[in-house]
Amino acid sequence: MTEDNLISRLARVQAAITLGTSDRTPVSLMMDYKFPCRHKGITQGEHFRNQTRGFHALLEVFDELGGWDIVFTDTMTTQIRNILEAPMVIKVPGKDIPEDDVIQWEETEVIQEEDYNKIIELGWKKFIADFYPRFRGWGNAEYRRRVEQRAGLEYTHIKAFNKQWEQKGIPILGSAGPFSPLMMLSCSRSMTNFMLDIHRIPDKVKAVMDAMVSDIIDVTIQSVKCSVIEPPMGIPAALIVLERGGCGYFPVKVFERFELPYLKQMVEAFVAEGITPILHFDHDWTLNLPYLKELPRGKCIAQFDSTTDIFKAKETLRDHICIMGDVSASLLSLGTPIEVEDYCKKLIDVTGEDGGFILGVGCSVPVDAKFENLRAMVNTAKTYRVH
Q1: Backbone torsions φ then ψ of 44, nearest 5 degrees
Q2: Which of 288, 354, 358 is nearest to 325 (CA)?
Q3: Cβ neighbours of residue 231 under 8 Å, at least 6 residues apart?
Q4: For position 1, what pLDDT does the model report?
Q5: CATH class of segment(s) 6-28+62-74+106-383
Q6: Over the Cα atoms of the chain, what is R_g?
Q7: Preceding peptide of 26 cis, ω within 30°
Q8: How far apart are CA 263 and CA 240, in angstroms?
């Protein structure tokens, strides 16, 4: 068996992305601060007041589980970033909600229909620069100060966190987490209003998305380039948040017009810059799977959350896109180690057949996961081979 070090772990993941095989199935737990803090008796609010506490809890959990093959670099800072940047109402533990609750995203209208014309005229970056001070109740100077402070703190945190992963011999995957235009609008308009928009004013929505996508691409590329992740340290990547564009929410004809063209633009632009797109498919995308073959072969990771039929995904996307997933939150929270082991073996046998597979959790590790279930998942990847 290949020794686990930075080079061997990185090679496993790179082999999977390029649809190959290696000595064993790579495993990655998409774990942010939530579970480690709960497991270590640290409140969720404490993490938001001091990100280092959550990160150190993650390091301890990583060691206790015996480690995995690659980490997502921005999972510890994304939630903080979104509080300043996301055009939606976010409730923070210890401030807006009880101290040990997990962060809450409130489904409410923030961007108004009349804002559509402004986005079309200004583009997304300029619109946001005007919108945020009003939305957060800050003056322009205060907004700039906070953005500059956040950028500095985030860079400091990421650099320090990355150094500690490097010392452990763990490669990094990231760092950027863009929303697709559809995801961004459905969150900021609210899902109800956005659904009405695409039926009442579809051409206007299309024009808004056209005005958004290039700015989203540019900001993402800049963010990844500033993250100082270079081989053999890790893999520059962008986790594209794609919860709401699939068949679980919309007919395929809506996906074809309002999601697929922009997803293709984003993926192709990132690949051209040497950035690996991670397609974060929350909810059901089973009917949309054939369209993913229009994306560049052997360049992306399709991450499923246990709602999409991952075995159908393997059947459809075999030898085209690396698949990652999909040990569910319910199994990790309510199942037994034997149940987790059995499901992981099935994933490795079926989804891992012929390579192109990373064993992962469905979305991210839930706050109430059982530690012994996570250990069973990691250990199965390390010891079980495709039969």
Answers
A1: -65, -35
A2: 358
A3: 10
A4: 47
A5: alpha beta
A6: 20
A7: no
A8: 9
Closest CA to 295 of 257, 315, 269: 269
Rounded to whole angstroms, the Cα distance separating 325 from 69 reads 14
Report the percent of the chain where pLDDT is more than 70.
Answer: 91
Using CA atoms, how far apart are residues 198 and 185, in angstroms rounded to an integer? 11
Output the average pLDDT for the chain: 90
Token pair, residue 54, equals: 């959550």
| 61/247 Cα distance (integer angstroms) | 36
Instruction: Break the chain into its structural domains and give their ranges.
Output: 6-28+62-74+106-383
Query: Which pLDDT belongs to residue 387?
Result: 66
pLDDT for res 229: 74
Q: Residue 224 — φ and ψ, nearest 5°? A: -65, -40
Q: Note if the pTM is more than 0.85.
A: yes
Q: Which is nearest to 385 in space by CA: 17, 68, 21?
A: 21
- Other C-beta atoms within 10 Å of 384: how many? 18
Q: Do you know the residue count of the chain?
A: 387
Give every residue of the chain whose pLDDT is below 50, as ranges.
1, 76
Neighbours of 61 (CB within 10 A): 19
